[in-house]
Amino acid sequence: QLPLVMATFLQHFGQLDPDAQFLLTAASDNVPEKAFSAQEREHFLALTLQGSLQLLQQGLGQLPFSRGNKEQREYHVQQQQFLQQQLQRFITAKADTPLGSLFKVPQAYTSIVLPGRSRYNYDALPRAALLMREAAARGDYNGLLVDCLFRIVGLFPQGYGVVFTPLGDDGKPQLKYEFAIVNSLYPEKPEQPLCRVVSRNQQYRNTGYNISLSTELNLYFKPARDRLKTLPEQRLKELLNMLYQDGEAKYLSRLVPKCWQPENFFSVPENQNLWHNAEQRQN
How far apart are CA 261 and CA 256, in angstroms? Predict the structure, then answer.
């Protein structure tokens, strides 16, 4: 995940440019956020790109020349100039080119899946792939690199809470659901996340196993939800309340949840290491 982290870091630093911050905060009328016009957005992106480039250039800096003859010094200077030119070329490349997408596709992805903007919608995070493929079709990004990204991260981001119907001893889906958390990259298929199961009989536990979750059992997808909707409404409410103390009040409008937010699970320190080895099963 290092490319995603670095792309986010560079983007965030670029947004700290004083002029970019002024556009964001609109301090004159005390508005914490404002919607940009097309012209303002273009100006803001130009400022953040320049800020990101400044970090790359100044962060890498000029390597000092320690010792050597005149030819070696000239070669050293040429190498440093070449590095700065490549940095400039990299960060200013058009987004629909492979070079430009190498930087901008991870930035666009993290801007969707990380919280911090008014349009952030946890339930809709798996739609990031659809949004980015639509952008690639418009020519905003290189389509090949968008596909490569989602072969790595899948549709469901790391740490995303999925709800699924477990298989019984007979190999058939049970009429109940359990919770799991996405904890691995490189799923076999983007729509089949690699997860750690974190509940059993509707009770949290931190000694679960890993699964490759099929779409047939993942309640994010409508066919799996429809299977559970055959249960009586009272039974669905009971399932919710076994997993949430305020289940009926909080989720009454959606008795069969598409996903869950695992803040309470992660608030227990013993539950925070989902990325160590565990038994792998199919589900």
Answer: 14
Say which residues have a Cβ less than 8 Å from residue 78's Cβ, sequence separation at least 6: none
The pLDDT tens digits for 7-44 are 777 778 888 888 888 887 764 455 555 567 778 777 88
* 104 within 8 A of 96, measured Cβ to Cβ: no
Write down the domain spans for the chain: 2-153, 161-282
Instruction: Give the span between the Cα atoms of 4 and 85, in whole angstroms.
Output: 23
Q: Residue 33: left (phi > 0), alpha (psi -120 to 50), or beta?
A: beta
What pairing do the DSSP bridges indicate for beta strands 161-164 and 203-204?
A: unpaired
Q: Distance between alpha carbon 219 and the CA centroid of its chain, in Å? A: 19
CA-angle at 119, arms to 113 and 124, nearest 5°: 50
How confident is the model over 118-133, as a mean pLDDT? 87
Q: How far, CA to CA in Å, does 251 sit from each of 142, 166, 197, 237, 242?
A: 39, 21, 22, 9, 12
Contact 271, 206 (CB under 8 A): yes
Burial of 147 (0-12, 13-18, 19+ CB in 10 A): middle
What's the start-to-end Cα distance of the chain, in Å?
25
Whether residue 179 contacts residue 260, with contact meaning beta carbons closer than 8 Å, is answered with: yes
